Amino acid sequence: MAYVIKNGILNDNSNPVRQIRSRNTGGAFPAPPGIVVIHFTAGGSAASSANWFASRENTNSSAHVVVDRDGSIIQCVNFNEVAWHAGKSSWRGLAGLNKHSIGIEIANWGALRGGANGWYNAAGQKVDNVVMAVHRNGNPDGSRTPIGWEAYPAAQFEAVVALVRALREVYPIAEIVGHDDIAPVRKSDPGPAFDMVRFRQRALGGRDQNGANVGVVRSPGGLNLRSGPGTNFAVVQLLADGSKVMPMGVNGSWIEVTTLDAAGKPSKTGWVHSHYLDLD
């Protein structure tokens, strides 16, 4: 699929995608947005979320688009206008991400509830497409053991990749973050079922395929290098933001790396969470 954006409207095969417009906008962006924020809806269909954004009962939330499980997209706010998706938020010195970012909502239930025969969404329906994981900031129920999260179908993932690629043709998009990055205490979306490392690689692209296999730490507060793939393992070293590492292996959301010194020579080996590692 290949999308094109014309005058702030997303087009598929020269036709605008389905529009369910929300009145909840902040007017024109003060400057072209350079960040994409990924959310999950914590609900059912994309249409149900888009209809809520358009409802007169809803006076304080919206997003630019909602992407359904089959990859279909509904646009709710013109890309040239501010949408109310981020709430109280901050990232790399910016406060209030609404005026700096484009918000993409993905139809997904997020954290599920365990039952006798499996995992269930907030509507009480059993969900079969489940990823067992622990949110890096702690699960919404306060636990730190694996729970069920609804998986993101391949068609949906690929649609969001194509969307961000189209956005980059028009806007200076340089970063992709989750709602749980910019509001980590309040929010858990898009959650551990969303492979953010792979998504960034696919959506941002531009990697030198002939270059060295090197990753860069992206964490303003530093990133713990641990002795094993999990927060229960001891911290070997605190890696500074911008540190370069060589990926060695993968275990779930954790990547085994060897740190590189200033001369690019291997130093210590350990494990880091993939969310904070840029492999582009």
Could you walk me through the main structural features you see in this protein, from its secondary elements to its overall organization?
This protein has four helices and 25 strands. The chain is mainly beta and 280 residues long. The chain has two domains: 162 residues, Lysozyme-like (3-Layer(aba) Sandwich); 64 residues, SH3 Domains (SH3 type barrels, Roll), CATH 2.30.30. The strands form eight sheets. A six-stranded mixed sheet has the order 4-8-7-12-6-18, sandwiched between helices. A hairpin with a 2-residue loop joins strand 1 and strand 2. Helix 2 crosses helix 4. The radius of gyration is 19 Å and the shape is globular. It starts with a strand and ends with a strand. The model has no long low-confidence stretch (mean pLDDT 91).
Write the layout of secondary structure elements.
Blueprint lengths: L2 E4 L2 E4 L2 E2 L1 E2 L5 E4 L6 E6 L5 H9 L10 E3 L5 E3 L5 E3 L6 E2 L2 E2 L5 E6 L6 E3 L2 E3 L5 E2 L2 E4 L13 E4 L3 H15 L6 E4 H4 L13 H9 L10 E3 L5 E4 L8 E5 L4 E8 L2 E7 L5 E8 L3 E2 L2
Parallel strand pairs: 4-8, 6-12, 6-18, 7-12
Antiparallel strand pairs: 1-2, 2-3, 5-9, 7-8, 10-11, 13-14, 14-15, 16-17, 19-22, 19-25, 20-21, 22-23, 23-24
Task: Write a concise synopsis of the structure shown.
By secondary structure, this protein is mostly beta strands. It contains 4 helices and 25 strands. The protein folds into 2 domains: 3-110 and 151-204, Lysozyme-like (3-Layer(aba) Sandwich); 215-278, SH3 type barrels (Roll).
